[in-house]
Amino acid sequence: MKHMNLTRRSFMKITTSAAGGLAVGIHFPSMAEASVEGAAAEINAWLTIDPDNIVSIVTPQTEMGQGAFTAVPMMVAEELDIPWENVRHVYASANRHVNNDNLYTTTSTGGSTTVSRRHPYMMQAGASARERLRVAAANRWNVPVDQVTAKQGWLTTEHEEQGTIQGTYGEFAAEAAAVTLDEEPAIKAYGDWWLLGRDVPRLDVPLKTNGTATYPIDVSVPGMVHAAAMACPVPEGRLVSYDFEAVKDMPGVIAAVELQQVKEVPAFTDLRSGVAIVADSWYQAQNALAVMPIVWDYGRGASISTESQMAEAMQLISQPGALVLNEDGNVGRRLDRGVNHDAVHGIIEASASQVTGEVYYRPFETHATMMPPCAVADVKDDRVDVWTFTQDIARSLNEVADQLGRGTENVFLHQTYLGGGFGGGYNMDVHRQAAAISAAVGRPVKVIRSREEDIAQDSQRPPVWGTYKAALGEDGLPEALVTHFVGDEKFPAFSQRGVANMPYLVPNRRHEYSAVQNHVPIGYHRAPGANSTGFIVEQMVDELAQAGGWDPLEWRIKMTEGNEPWQRVLLAMKEKSGWTTDMGRGEGMGLAVVASHGTVAGCVATVAVSRRGQIFIDKLDFYINSGYVINPLAAREQAESSAIWELSHAMFGGLVIREGRIVNTNFDSYQMMKMADTPPEIVVHMEMSEDQWWGGLGEPTGPPTPPAVANAIFYATGTRVRSTPIANAEL
Amino acid sequence: MSITLNINGQDHLIDVDPQMPLLWAIRETVGLTGTKFGCGIAQCGNCTVIVDGNAVRSCNTPVAAAAGKAIRTIEGVSENNDHPVQQAWQEFTVPQCGYCQSGQIMSAVALLEKSPDPTDNEIDKAMAGNICRCGTYPRIRAAIHRAAELSKT
Fold first, then answer.
1. Residues B99, B68: one domain?
2. A638 belongs to a structural domain
3. Which of A45, A123, A443, A535 could share a disulfide with A187, CB 3.0–4.6 Å?
4. Are the Cβ atoms of B24 and A682 closer than 8 angstroms?
5. DSSP symbols for A329-384
6. Is A707 contained in some domain?
7. Residue numbers in A near B131 (CB within 8 A)
8. Contacts of A674 in chain B (CB under 8 A)
9. Does residue A4 belong to any structural domain of this protein?
C-alpha cells in the first residue's frame, strides 16, 4: 500500500482508494452509531459517498463531549460542499492509521487542537474530493472541468447541445476515486464559508438522550469475563505477594492475574505493578479483590505527604530558584521575558517601593471522568480487539501492541464515545491491563476501575506554589519583577506556563522555579499549567495594581499596550462589563485574563459574600478572543463547560496525600460543583480580532475563572484567597 | 437466588446474589446499558433509575429491594426519543460527553412527574444527586423548564 501522508501535495499520489476504489471499508465497530450502507465509494481516506449521496466523514479524533464528531465533518463538508443533512460521521480505523504511515496525520485529541491545528488538512481532504468529483463529471460529460460546478451535492454543467446536465456526487463517486489531480486546490478563506461559522447542533446529542451512545463500559464481546484490578495504592510501589487461595472459592471467581511492571519507575503510560481478579461478573471480581490479602512494597512514596511537599515547597520558595528564561506559545508576539534578569534582584533590593508577595498554592486535582477508566480486550493468536478510554486511539493501539509484544498489523483499537476526557485519556494504562489480563486468561475481558481505584491511580494534575517580589516605579507600575514558582519533579513545565511568558511587559524581569519530590504520576488536566498558574499570576497582578494605585483593569490595559489580542479582550471588558471595584459591602467584581491554547480568555466575576462567609457567584461574564470560530454554539458550550470544570476544582476540589496515598477516595471526599453551586448567569462574548488566527476553545475559559472569583472576593471582603479550595477560606 | 425484576413494563426472571446492586442486574444481567456506573456509593447519580415513581441510585440498591417494583430506565422513557424531557434536552443540546445524562434525565423525569412546573429551588434539590463533570448544569436547568412547558401543550 502507498504511503498516504495527507499533506497537500501528497493527495496527488493517491490514484485509487486504499481498498481499490469501491465499497470500502472504512472500519467502524459494530456498535458505532453511524454506518456506511450500500456500495459507497471512498474518494479519499476521509470520506465515502454512497449512491444516495450520503457522505460519511471519518473522524480520527475522539468524541468526549467537546464536539470533535461534529467539527471534523463540518470542516470537510465545508469544502466538499454537501448539504449538512447528507453528512454522517464515522469512526476512523486506528489500525489503518497506524499501519499506513499515520494516514490521518494524528489521532491525538487534546490541547484544544482539533479545529485550531487540524483544519488545514481536514479542509484539504474535502476540497480534494470536490475537485476530483468535478474532474470525473467533466470526463464523463466530455466538457472542460472549468465548466463543471460542484455545489450542495450536485455536479452541474451547461452543455452546448444538451443544455443543463446534472448528477449527484454519489453518481460520480466511484469514478472520482480514480482521478489524479494535476494540482491540489487551495482551501477556502474565511468569508467564503457557507457552513463554518454557523450554529450547528452537535450530531451526537440525540444518542445521548436515550442511552444508546456506546462507551467502552457498554461494550460486550461473546465469552467475555470481567476483571477488577488494583495497582499499588502508593504510586511507584510494587506488588510483593497476594493470596488467591483465600478468595478463589468466592462466587464467580475464575482467576487472579499479576500485572507486571517492567521498569523500576514506570512511565505514565506503562503497566503498573498490581493484581487483578477475573470473575463472571464485575461485582464478583470486585468483591473478591476487596478482601484478597495483598502485600505491597510502598517504596519511597510512603514518606511523601501533602504536608511534606508543602514544607519542602515553602523552604524552596524562600531561597532563589533556577532561572527560567521564557517559554514560547503565547498568543500575539513572541517576547523575551527574561529581560535584564541578572540585575532584577539588585534593583528590587535597592528600591524604596518594594512589593513582596505571599505564597499562593493550588493542590493536586484528579480527572474523575464520569466514566471510570474502562477497557475491553479480546486477545487472540491472530488478532487483538480493544475498546478503551483513550484520547489517542493510535497511541493506545501502539501501547497494546507493545504490551503484548506484537506488531500492530492485527491490533484493532475501536473508537467509542468517551465519558469525559479532560486530558485523562493520555497517561493511562487501563488498556494495557485489559490486554495483559485477556492474554493471561485466553478470553475476552472487561476491566472497570472502581471510582476508588480511579482516583488512587489517575495521572493527577500536580500542585503549584508561587510567589513574587517587585519594585514599583514612580508611575506605580512595576519596574522590576521576579516570580518564583514551585512545581513537581515529574512535570515542572506545568508550573511555568503562563508565568515565564506572561504578556505584561516589565522592564526588568526574572522567573525562577523549583520542584518538590513527587511520586504521584502526572497527567494533562484541561488547560494544564495555566489552570493553576493563572490563579496565581492574575491575583499577583491585582496586588501589584493595588500597590501602585492602579485600577486592575486599567493596569492590564497599560501593561499589554500594543498586544492586540489582549487589548481587544480588555477593552471589551471595559466597554461591556460594567466594571467597578466598588460595589458596596459584601459584593465584589473581579477580573482575570489568561492566554492558553492560542486563545485569550477573560472573565469578569460578580460575587456576594454573606456575613457568615458564604460565597455566592452571581455572574460570570466571559470575553474570548480565539480568532476564527467555526461553530459559535459549540464554542459557547465549551466556554461554559471549561469554566464550570475549573471553578469546581477551585471551589471544592483538592487532593490530600498521606503516607504516599491519596486520601480522597470517591465523590464523598472529592467534592465537585453541582446544579445549586452553578452561577445562575454565565455570559459569553466572542471578541474576534481582525488580524485572524486559529485558537482553541476546549480549555481557555477555565484558567481565568478562579482568579476572577478570588479577585471579586477580595473586593467584597478585603480578604485575599491565596489557595484552593476557596470554599474552605475563612471570610 | 431467583428474583423477578419488572423493568420498563417487562418482567425479567434472573438468578443473582440478592445483595448485588440493582445497577449490575440492569446492565449486565438484563443487558440494558443506558444506565451508567459512576461511583458505586450513590454520590454521582449516573446510575439513577425510577423505582415506583422515585428517582433511586441503583448502584447501592440491592437487587432484592427492587423485586416486584416498577423499575424504569432510560430505555423506557420513550419509544422514539421524544419524551418532553428528551425533546428539551435535544433542543438545548444539553449533553456533552453524555455519560451522566441518562441519570440526569431520569432525575428530571421523576421531578416533573411530581412537580410539573418546578421552581429553580426545586430543580436544585431534585438534581442535587447528579454530577455532570462537563458542567452542563445551566442547560439542564433551562431544559427542565422547557420540558415543563412542552408537557403542558
1. no
2. yes
3. A123
4. no
5. --SS------TTGGGHHHHHHH-SSEEE---EEE--B----SSPPEEEEEE-SS-E
6. yes
7. 370, 667, 672, 674
8. 127-128, 130-131, 137
9. no
B38–chain A nearest CA distance, Å: 6
Which among B43, B75, B123 has CB closest to A675? B123
Which residue in chain A is spatially nearest to B121 when comparing CA positions? A676
Q: Clarify whether residues B68 and B94 are in a common domain.
A: no
Give the residue from A203, A204, A284, A370 with the most B CB atoms within 10 Å of its CB, the best one to mutate.
A370
Q: From chain A, pick out residues whose CB is under 8 angstroms from the CB of B93.
A: 201-202, 205, 633, 637
- Domain containing A659 equals 309-363+461-728
Examine the domain organization and report whether B6 and B67 are in the same domain. Answer: yes
- Asked if A645 and B94 come within 8 Å (Cβ–Cβ), the reply is no
State how far residue A644 is from chain B, nearest Cα, in angstroms. 5
Residues A617 and A588 sit within 8 Å (Cβ to Cβ): no
Same domain for A722 and A639, yes or no, is yes
Measured between its terminal Cα atoms, the distance across chain A in Å is: 67
CB pairs under 8 A between A and B: 168
Which CATH number goes with the domain that contains A272?
3.30.365.10
CB contact under 8 A, A205 and B81: no
Distance from CA of A522 to the nearest CA of B (A): 20
Share of chain A above pLDDT 70, in %: 93
Q: Does residue A129 fall inside a structural domain?
A: yes
* pLDDT tens, chain B, 153 aa long: 899 999 999 999 999 999 999 999 999 999 999 999 999 999 999 999 999 999 999 999 999 999 999 999 999 999 999 999 999 999 999 999 999 999 999 999 999 999 999 999 999 999 999 999 999 999 999 999 999 999 997
A616 and A712, same structural domain? yes
Same domain as B94, residue B56: no
Is the same domain home to A359 and A377? no
pLDDT in tens, A492-510: 888 888 888 789 989 888 8
User: ipTM, 2 decimals?
Assistant: 0.98
Whole-number Å distance between alpha carbons of A428 and A4? 29
Verify whether the Cβ–Cβ distance A207 to B35 is below 8 Å. Answer: no
Identify whether residues B66 and B106 lie together within a single domain.
no
Task: Please say whether the beta carbons of A253 and A244 come within 8 A.
Answer: no
Q: Domain of B122: which CATH number?
A: 1.10.150.120
Is there a domain that residue B79 lies in?
no
Contact (CB<8Å) A211/B97: no
**Chain B residue numbers touching A202 (CB-CB < 8 A):** 93
Partners of residue A644 in chain B, C-beta under 8 Å: 135, 137
A572-578, Cβ contacts within 8 angstroms, sequence gap of 24 or more:
A572/A602, A572/A623, A572/A685, A572/A687, A573/A602, A573/A604, A573/A623, A576/A621, A576/A623, A576/A685, A577/A604, A577/A621, A577/A623
Chain A residues with CB-CB distance to B33 below 8 A = 211, 214, 217-218
Q: Which residues in chain A have Cβ-Cβ distances shorter than 8 Å to B101?
A: 208-209
Nearest CA in chain A to B28: A281
Give residue-wise pLDDT tens across range B6-24: 999 999 999 999 999 999 9
* Per-residue model confidence as pLDDT tens digits over A588-608: 999 999 999 999 999 999 999
